[in-house]
Amino acid sequence: MAEEITFSFDDVPAFGRAMREAAPKFFVRELGKAFYQIGKSDNQKMKQQLQSSGLNIRSKGFLNSFKFKASDSREAKSISDLSLNEYTGAKPFRIFQDGGTITPSSSRLLTILTDAARTAGGKRKFSQKELEAMIASGQAKIIQTKAGPAIIKVDNLTTKSGRYKKGAKLTILAWLKPRVAEKKRIDFFANFESNGADHERILSAAADAAIEKTIADEGD
């Protein structure tokens, strides 16, 4: 289920003077453009928050899952047709928004891939089934380390007796953990609220522009 913030005309501070003095066609158009500017500004700030949150975001998918949609004011007939939605459908959103403990859903341990098992762009090189097949075939194995069990890549690391060769370097593909505690990293909802001053500035400019265009149109 997507998380969203809905911004509509009912949420906008009173536009008394603009509603009295501006022609509806100009007011609707300028307000619609203001909603778009607000959505774009909030979205950019949300992505900046993500990039500075401490999250190790390798994939652009999570970053780009935060979006906005503003009504096309060219098609709106009245103010009630205008709205702005800011939303995300990112699956890990809630855990980063609230914090909490991640536990496995269908096994005893979580498989947490290391950089060695991911591409430069953050995509996983091996699926869970592929890792299991590598272990079954001997291409990988599970070993116990001081940090807990890990899956390592086997690449001529051992002698015939089973001992590690001198100078052999282990490539850890994944760590196996029963649970992972994740702290709160982002605040999608507070991002919208904290931009209130910018929202008011953009909306005030829209009201002024609508009045100015009305005056110019009446003077023609």
Molecular structure report:
With 220 residues, the chain is of the alpha+beta class. Helices cover 39% and strands 21% of the residues. The protein has 7 helices and 9 strands, in the order βαααββαββαββββαα. The protein has helices spanning 16-21, 24-51, 60-63, 93-98, 128-137, 188-194, 196-219, and strands spanning 3-8, 66-70, 83-88, 100-102, 110-113, 140-145, 148-153, 171-177, 180-182. The strands form 3 sheets. Strands 5-8-7-6 form a 4-stranded antiparallel beta sheet, with helices on one face. Strands 1-3-2 form a 3-stranded antiparallel beta sheet, with helices on one face. A hairpin with a 2-residue loop joins strand 6 and strand 7. Helix 2 packs antiparallel against helix 7 (196-219). The mean pLDDT is 82.
